[in-house]
Write a structure and sequence with these properties.
Layout lengths: L44 H12 L1 H8 L5 E8 L4 E8 L2 E10 L4 E12 L5 E8 L2 E3 L2 H6 L11 E2 L3 H18 L7 E7 L1
Antiparallel strand pairs: 1-2, 1-8, 2-3, 3-4, 4-5, 4-6, 5-7
Length: about 190
Amino acid sequence: MAVSFLENIHSLPADGPSNHAHVIDISTYDPQDFSSTPLSWNLKLWDAVATTLYNISPATLNDFLDTKRHEYKLVLTSKSNEGRIVVWRKDTEVLVGGFVDELDDGVYQWDHVVRCDINNDGGWTINYASYGLYTQRDWQTVWAGSFMDLRSGRGDVSDNATCRSEKAFLLAEKIMEDRPWPARLFSWTISEN
């Protein structure tokens, strides 16, 4: 199953290489098409990120892509449950993850976390992926990668490209299933520098 991309996004052309971000045409996207054999599908995390930002607003996507901004962080919060998503870029490095804020324990419980580099040509490279880890409730700790396995043996850090790609796919799939852009269902906070 191929993902269709919007043709009218000049900064992210639909015919760009697969390791470049694209905006998915959500009118043709069906999450059920991606329910088996993750690595056989072409749903990419960077496409899910670009699609989310664009559907919040085209200006949100443009702000994220603006290289004059040293840092850009978007935290999406579901209004129906405790789930959150962060999309955080510092220079050419991007951290994307799903998490729950466990206030009583003073930690963020992370589902999937993926860290990528955006290359000079606009291509994305996955350099870290994990599942089931925790951090203190401090964003600098998150960025520093100080993840902990508080539930002994549950957490997993992928040590090879195939496992990292699979975790990135699963995170992209979750983002696209949740469709975290309607203001009636999600709130968001943006910080930039």
